[in-house]
Amino acid sequence: MKDLIFTRRRVLAVLGVSSAGALVAACGAAATPTPAPKPAAPAAAPAAPIVAPAKPAEAPKPAEAPKPAATKPAEAPKPAATKPAAAAPAAAPAKPGAATGKVFWLVRSTPQENKGQETIFEPAIKAALPNVQIERVIVPGAQYIPKINSMAAAKESLEIWGFGGNYFDYWARGLPQDLTSYIKGDNWDVDKYFGEGLMDIFKVRGKWYGLSQLTTYGSIMVYNKDMFDKAGLKPPPVKWDDKEWTFDRALEYATKMTKNYGTPNGEYGWQAEEWALMTSWPYKWGGDAWQKEHYTNTIAQKTNFNSPEVIDSHQYMQDLIWKHKVNPDPGTIQGLAALQNPFKTGKIGMHTDGGWLFWSTSDIKEFKVGYAALPTMKSNKHINFDDFWIMGRWATNKDAAWQVMRAITTVDATSKYSVQSGTPPTPRESVKAWLESVSKFSGQSVDDLLTLCLGAIDPKIAQESPDHLFLQHPKISTSYENEIRDPVRNKQGDAKTIITKGAAVMDDIVNGIYNQFKDSLPKD
């Protein structure tokens, strides 16, 4: 396991072009239908970086295997091609046919996702597989991972799930079906079909455990153009190496847009969220809350929480709220969120977070929206998020489930879904349609959006999300929120005092997970 990010050359290679200008030209054509969605490392073709997961509850530990410290569970990503690749060939079609019976498909109760399932994916499944009955199990997002765990524990058939989760935690507990035989049986070149590198992210010891479902192009900024215009500010840049786009400049912008702080009529310059703060925020100060081996081995014996970069970044986080008064305090955020996404209220000038901002803001009609690069402190390194469609190892109708997975990953279905939902697609041939739809919505040129997306997946500043890589990441995250994030945001002390105490708790949590899994990772 390793950082799986895409270089500019790799992205250009996806469409078989040799320059940004050529790529932009290529984006004008309509996307050709064929199979596809999936999450993983940033991909080639102007679409493809990374998405976020959750954690499944404990289940029986799989058979013993080599200690993670000695053996990397996942294959290292393949090196970037030195020459532009030819356009992705059409994948071998899923074998039509004889699939019958029920396929249980677990999804979240998210309006955009459910609409796509009802209007795009299910009709595609019905057309390809008329004898298969889809049973969508719809649960609220907070219950999604617990539902996977409960169905697995009860051996209640679950053919397909996706939308995040801790992929290596799933693997360590033996939940996903190995899809290698299905992929090879269909003679499907998934590496050329999906964005480059995406299928490597959840490839463990040479075996594929998922199909690329979703990607985010890292973490980005969305901004309220109307508030920028009102304050007389020029738009933030799409170039990640813009020397003027610093935290100081972002704070200056935020100060000019903040009005009536803390009042019912308050407007706020910057909601500095950027999930997950415990990882992404120290990156900006040139540090890392985690040991290097945590990224490669899924577990580690300790953290780097009690380090200057973690402390300084969290002090700045606190200062944005209580000293500079440009970031809404936790109570205000809670109040704004009671009605809808706080940014959608039109009272926030800039919002930084995961690349899901591309689709979660794509339905705004009350004000104009733009997308930009993250500002730089010592760095603007950030997290990429990629998700996968997974087949349950204990599922009872696996052959039909595979054919359904093929149906929901076609270029035709994923292109339509990306335009309808705003979600970046993972098949190479679906990216152009998505870029054009984002351009139409934001008023930004395809060229500028390309610059933003390509820069976001530069290996120097992009990292696959630890919540996809670290075993029991939700347990780590909950401890961080309780011990460090919430006390810092609520100003229950300065960052140094809070983190000095909280770092010991974080080390204990991480070490406990290490000891739990060091001798019990699966052998296959």
What does this structure look like?
The chain is α/β, with parallel strands linked by helices. The protein is built from 21 helices and 13 strands. Helix 3 runs antiparallel to helix 16, helix 16 runs parallel beside helix 17 and helix 20 runs antiparallel to helix 21. The N terminus is likely disordered.
Salient structural properties:
524 residues; alpha/beta; 13 strands; 12% strand; disordered N terminus
Secondary structure elements and their pairing?
Elements lengths: L7 H7 L5 H7 L74 E8 L2 H18 L3 E8 L1 H13 L6 E2 L5 H6 L7 H6 L4 H4 L9 E2 L2 E2 L2 E5 L3 E6 H6 L16 H11 L10 E5 L4 H8 L7 H6 L10 H15 L7 H8 L10 E7 L2 H4 L8 E4 L9 E3 L1 E6 L6 H10 L3 H11 L9 H12 L3 H11 L5 E3 L1 H4 L3 H17 L5 H23 L7
Parallel strand pairs: 1-2, 8-9, 11-13
Antiparallel strand pairs: 3-12, 4-5, 6-12, 7-9, 7-10
Write a brief structural summary.
With 524 residues, this protein is of the alpha/beta class. 40% of the residues lie in helices and 12% in strands. The chain has a four-stranded mixed beta sheet.
- Major pleated sheet: 4 strands, mixed
Number of strands: 13
Low-confidence stretches: 1-94
Helix content: 25-40%
Oligomer: single chain
- How many H/I helical runs? 21
Give me the side-by-side strand order of the main sheet.
8-9-7-10
Shape: globular
Strand fraction band? Answer: 5-15%
- What is the mean predicted local confidence, pLDDT? 84
Distance, first to last CA = 15 Å
Backbone structural class: alpha/beta
- Rg, Cα atoms, Å: 22 Å
